[in-house]
Automatic annotation (TrEMBL):
<protein>
    <recommendedName>
        <fullName>Carbonic anhydrase</fullName>
        <ecNumber>4.2.1.1</ecNumber>
    </recommendedName>
</protein>
<dbReference type="GO" id="GO:0015976">
    <property type="term" value="P:carbon utilization"/>
</dbReference>
<dbReference type="InterPro" id="IPR001765">
    <property type="entry name" value="Carbonic_anhydrase"/>
</dbReference>
<feature type="binding site">
    <location>
        <position position="99"/>
    </location>
    <ligand>
        <name>Zn(2+)</name>
    </ligand>
</feature>
<feature type="binding site">
    <location>
        <position position="42"/>
    </location>
    <ligand>
        <name>Zn(2+)</name>
    </ligand>
</feature>
<comment type="similarity">
    <text>Belongs to the beta-class carbonic anhydrase family.</text>
</comment>
<keyword id="KW-0456">Lyase</keyword>
<keyword id="KW-0862">Zinc</keyword>
<keyword id="KW-0479">Metal-binding</keyword>
<comment type="function">
    <text>Reversible hydration of carbon dioxide.</text>
</comment>
<dbReference type="InterPro" id="IPR045066">
    <property type="entry name" value="Beta_CA_cladeB"/>
</dbReference>
<dbReference type="GO" id="GO:0008270">
    <property type="term" value="F:zinc ion binding"/>
</dbReference>
<dbReference type="InterPro" id="IPR036874">
    <property type="entry name" value="Carbonic_anhydrase_sf"/>
</dbReference>
<dbReference type="Pfam" id="PF00484">
    <property type="entry name" value="Pro_CA"/>
</dbReference>
<feature type="binding site">
    <location>
        <position position="102"/>
    </location>
    <ligand>
        <name>Zn(2+)</name>
    </ligand>
</feature>
<dbReference type="InterPro" id="IPR015892">
    <property type="entry name" value="Carbonic_anhydrase_CS"/>
</dbReference>
<feature type="binding site">
    <location>
        <position position="40"/>
    </location>
    <ligand>
        <name>Zn(2+)</name>
    </ligand>
</feature>
Length: 224
């Protein structure tokens, strides 16, 4: 805990005073994030660092495997967070960000290995469709464990499937139908910093610079 305590001291003594006006504004005006950002609980992922964002910019939801359960009548933390972000905060973009070397997806690829972890096993059931797609694509039996060579493919397929799950939530469906929200699927490569992207109707991923070419052109021509 030494470095955590040291970090809080540094924040209070140096970081907070430098950004006191920002925090004051966030208290007075409340939060108005433009983006709902889903990602994995993995400690190697830092959404604010990755996006260069500040407090108040992202409404962040994290769990093992960046999973978004399909909408149901059972209330859960992810469902409530989606509803609040879309209906109350009125976010304009939702990003579902997976990452390379994901331990949750490794678990989903070999469910029998999760013996003794019943809650993890049940949670990763929300990745099942992604794993079945990978098996079907390669002619593998439905009860087979996926080899490590399929990991990156499974990670991308999981993001695609979670994006589809997101579309089942009524608040999201309503905003999509009226073009008031946009869904982005990302896979962040921890080793090299690259990001691959897909849209809400995509079946595959493209490079970040190609996917956001128009936005990149706009922000480079008009730097903040």
């Amino acid at each position: 805990m030494d470095h955590i305590v040291r970090g809080v001291l540094e924040f209070r003594e140096n970081v907070y005073p430098e950004r006191k006006d920002l925090f004051g504004t966030l208290i007075e005006d409340g939060q108005h994030p433009e983006v709902l950002f889903f990602t994995c609980s993995d400690s190697r992922i830092d959404p604010n660092l990755l996006t260069g964002s500040s407090p108040g910019d992202l409404f962040i939801c994290r769990n093992a495997g960046n999973i978004i359960p399909p909408h149901s009548n059972e209330t859960g933390g992810m469902t409530a967070s989606i509803e609040y972000a879309v209906a109350v905060l009125k976010v304009r973009h939702i990003i579902v960000c997976g990452h390379t070397d994901c331990g949750a997806i490794k678990g989903a690829m070999d469910i029998p290995a999760l013996k003794g972890l019943p809650h993890v096993k049940e949670w990763l059931g929300h990745c099942r469709s992604a794993m079945e797609i990978v098996r079907e694509r390669h002619g593998l039996s439905v009860d087979s464990c996926l080899d490590a060579k399929y990991l990156n493919e499974a990670i991308e397929e999981n993001v695609l499937q979670q994006v589809q799950h997101l579309r089942t939530h009524p608040a999201v469906a309503a905003k999509l139908a009226t073009h008031k929200i946009e869904i982005h699927g990302w896979v962040y490569d921890i080793k090299n910093g690259n990001v691959r992207c897909c849209g809400s109707n995509s079946v595959g991923f493209t490079d970040f610079n190609d996917y956001y070419a128009d936005v990149i052109s706009r922000v480079t021509d008009n730097p903040a």
